[in-house]
């Protein structure tokens, strides 16, 4: 696998204007190309595309992880701890309701990580995390 590879993720939203405010203004993702039915965002160097598809937006299934109900369909980014803390503070100041409040998961274990889950305005679940040791992202 090429460590310089980028990912592309397309996902449904119920309103393009709401997506622009949430991903562009709140999360700070610069906007790229767009049309009336979709908009590209630079999501931490990756291509994220919000497609107008209100009937498909949201999530409904979760799994138990570390005593929390984690949405089984979610996406996000792995940030440095400083970036993660800054984002958590920005989200709290904006009044975002968390599915899982910011906390440290697997404390003291190889996969120790800061994590938080929240929904975008279309009900899509996002997780942002930061590892205590980035070398342990894929450790078993």
Secondary structure: elements and pairs:
Layout: E1 8-13, H1 16-26, E2 31-34, E3 38-43, E4 46-52, E5 62-65, E6 68-71, E7 74-78, H2 81-93, E8 98-105, E9 113-119, E10 125-131
Parallel strand pairs: 1-4, 7-10
Antiparallel strand pairs: 2-3, 3-4, 5-6, 8-9, 9-10
Domain VOC: 5-131
InterPro entries: Glyas_Bleomycin-R_OHBP_Dase, Glyas_Fos-R_dOase_dom, VOC_core
Protein name: VOC family protein
Order of helices and strands: EHEEEEEEHEEE
CATH class of the largest domain: Alpha Beta
Largest sheet features: 4 strands, mixed
The total tally of domains equals 2
Shape: globular
Total beta strands: 10
- The class by helix and strand makeup works out as alpha+beta
């Amino acid at each position: 696998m090429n460590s310089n590879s980028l990912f592309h993720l397309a996902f449904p939203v119920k309103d393009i204007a709401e997506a622009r405010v949430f991903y562009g203004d709140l999360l700070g993702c610069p906007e790229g190309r767009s049309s009336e039915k979709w908009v590209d965002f630079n999501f931490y160097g990756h291509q994220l595309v919000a497609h107008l598809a209100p009937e498909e937006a949201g999530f409904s299934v979760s799994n138990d992880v570390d005593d929390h109900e984690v949405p089984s369909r979610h996406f996000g980014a792995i940030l440095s701890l400083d970036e993660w803390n800054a984002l958590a503070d920005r989200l709290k100041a904006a009044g975002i309701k968390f599915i899982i409040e910011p906390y440290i998961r697997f404390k003291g274990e190889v996969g120790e990580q800061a994590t938080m889950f929240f929904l975008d305005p279309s009900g899509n679940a996002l997780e942002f995390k930061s590892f205590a040791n980035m070398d342990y992202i894929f450790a078993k």
